[in-house]
Amino acid sequence: MSTQRLGAPGDLSEREREAVEALLYQLADDEFVVADRYTDWQCQGPTLEADIAIANIAQDELGHARLWYDLLEDFGYEESELIWERDAADFRHATLCEQSFESGDWADAVVRSYCYDVAEFLQLEALAETSYPRIADRIEKVQGEEHYHREHAQNWLERLCEDDDGTRRVQQAVDDLYPYALTLFEPTAKEADIVELGLRPTSLDQLRSEWYDITGAFLAGLGVSVPEESELDDLVAEQTGRDGDHTDDWQRQYNELTYTYRMLDRTEARRLMADPDEA
Amino acid sequence: MQDHYKRYSMDIEEVKQRAGPREFGPTDDMPEEYRKAATRMIQFHANSEIMGAYIERPFIRQAPSLDRKLAVSAQVQDEIGHGQLLYRAAENLGIKTREQMLDELANGEGKFLNCFHYPLDDWYELPMIMFFVDGAAMRRQATLKRTSWEPYAHAIDKICFEEGFHIKHGESILAELASGTRRDQQRLQEAFDKWWPRILQFFGPTDDQSTHSDFSSAVGLKTMGNDALRTAFLNVYLPKAEKYGLEIPETPAVTFNDDTNRYEVEEEDLDWDEFMQIARNQYPQGVGQIDKRHRTQEAVEWVRDAIENPGAGSAAAD
User: What is the total count of domains within chain B?
Assistant: First the structure.
């Protein structure tokens, strides 16, 4: 673990820069796409309070996406290229993030959020040791908000599982989402360099194993079962997203979210807030 | 204060006499007529917040930049929050529970603002709601800081504060489109032409034709009439529309009367049949919006069941 601290964005070698970019795309795209999916629940939540809470979480995740995309802008990219004009197949988020919700399937929303938030918590912990200073500077801000997300998901899972029908629906959501949740731990093309260069010193296998223990124990306590750890490799969804291979849900989501930008023939994305470095 | 222990409700005359800004609250024994009138008004406002959020909702996903997406999401969230706050203020009156009011909304019995019965077609139409309609709402709400039911006035304080940000964002969208290409400007003008009559109708029929106005004004719930509100709105928003290069349509005719110091709108130029159809929740597009609300609420009914009556299936636990 005695990796060297990397330099400023402009001082990176080509190998370093490619690994940093791959990691940032993965982080930013996960946050952006899952947040956009959460917003599906705005005006559709089971209670007004639930509606407000999920909107909060979506906005936090959008804010995090903004922080990570902003670090890609260090390399000269602009928001228009990073999001609005990028090909759908160039996004690197895990396919868990893009799955559409069945109408009313709140169990999916809380199970997904739980799986995602525990994975993010572990990933951020690992990134706290990163060799890249620009990422290190932003970890604390993101970590501060993630705690509340995890608590929110856990509370909802506990409430739903006090009821038989609720437990059944949670189990169904776990069964359906598990193959996609595992894609959070699938590698991008630069994974070996990401670990070797100490960008994220912990391997994805290690993270997955920790995630499995935490989520498995919590869900078991609620009477919800998960697959055996030995089965995980075979269970991973065919499309992981990490290599640009996505499910049909993503193409639909992508078309809709870029619709106005294309309709307006935009060439740039309007900024309203201060740059994160100045905020 | 001295009325805490009063055993019988205040009579209407006393209400009218005392009526003033933030005069009455949950510790006052208000007569049923007052409580009903206040409930009707606040429930209408709460419903409008929810249904307003519904028509803006598609633009969270469709917003053309990250910051705009964040802003629209926050805005829709605020509106749901306003609904929550207002239903609570209405609930305090002891006429209806929040559940009843939400059920009425989903069942098509709850009334809400005319403008929120029309879904938005695209991004060009968004500032029609976020700037003009919200601006009109702000005019009305500002006068309600002096309403006689204190919990309502209290909710209004928070609502006006947040609404100010929404209008600013709406204006920023409007400004971006207005300074865009010629096509942007044309599409914006088309959206304005389509929405302008609806915006004029936002304030309802003229005072002499308004059904519930008299009583609400007499007991201090309403503090300004429809005509005065519309004038106050036009004073500010006509110049703003022009500033962004929008042409005010020739019909409905809007003229300023120097004698009365008021804007006058040619009432016959407005489609009051459509307005009344909307008021009865029977306008086809509005029915579509209400049905959407109904379906989404029905789809999550199981969640409310699970958390309110947790147990094994339908059998009672004890």
Answer: 1
